[in-house]
Amino acid sequence: MNESALSIAKELHFYRDQSSCLNNIGLYFSKLDNYTQASKYYEEALALAENISYFQSQSECLTNLGVLYLDLGDYDRSLSYFNRVLEIDNNSGAIGQIIIDLNNIGTIHRKKGQQSNDLKEYENALAYFKKSLDLSDNFADERSRIRIINNLATTYSDIGIYHTSLKYYQEALSLALSKKDQEARGSILNNIGIVMTLQGDEAAAIDYFRKAIEISKDTTNNKILWEAFLELANTYRRQGIFLEAIDYYKKAISIIEKTRSSIESEELKATFFGNDKKLEGYHNLLDSLFKIRNRQQGDALGTDVFDLIERSKARAFLDSFKIS
Fold it and tell me: How far apart (Å, rounded) are the C-alpha atoms in residues 54 and 87?
């Protein structure tokens, strides 16, 4: 439908509609985790919007590019897009979009805090999230509010304030249930499972991870699904249940590699593997394979290990191995 609309808009020289259609097609490819195609359409839509000073489309395209590079782990580039869009939205007074912008910038600071373990980054993240949440008090976009509260909870979990984290998670989960927001429910349940793990209640954690997996199977958000598989695998690995752990690591890695296969740029492929928990799945799967192999006879699992290394093909993954 968007391609048909784009064709008509080109014939009529309706540049605003062209920009909107191109951005929508980019969103389609983003939902498929095809980052290369998504970026191409977003950039084309943005260039057209800038040429005709179409600020609404500029805001949408910059936001989508920021989210794309956030998912790829290029936080500096993502932050530059989010700062640009915040300036545009401040000038236009678009409160709903400003709420999203502040939340997105807070997410970048949280990610940077995870990378550097810098408490200042976490404090910046909390400040942006709280400002975003305050603005949302009188704004009817409950979907954005759910995600802001979830992000606040996650940041408090990162800095070890678990009681506050769980309070925010329960509030976000209640809102997600009332709005039937399955994507948000999956993310929140997975995050609560992580807090349960950090507090030593692994039985409860497994229950939350399994619920997150069941819900996320019915959404298009593969990131939530592979993270839930990974967290469940990590829990079984800590308990010494290696066969279960191996099964869930493989499920997580299958999703990760499917996403990576759509990225054409070698630089972006390395960035994709260089952040978040993606490499953790490979390392822990290898460890689990070696440990279970020590319990059994034969080289079948040893072959599996080398197949895994050969199949990964990611520069960041290979570079992470240190020869001693």
Answer: 14
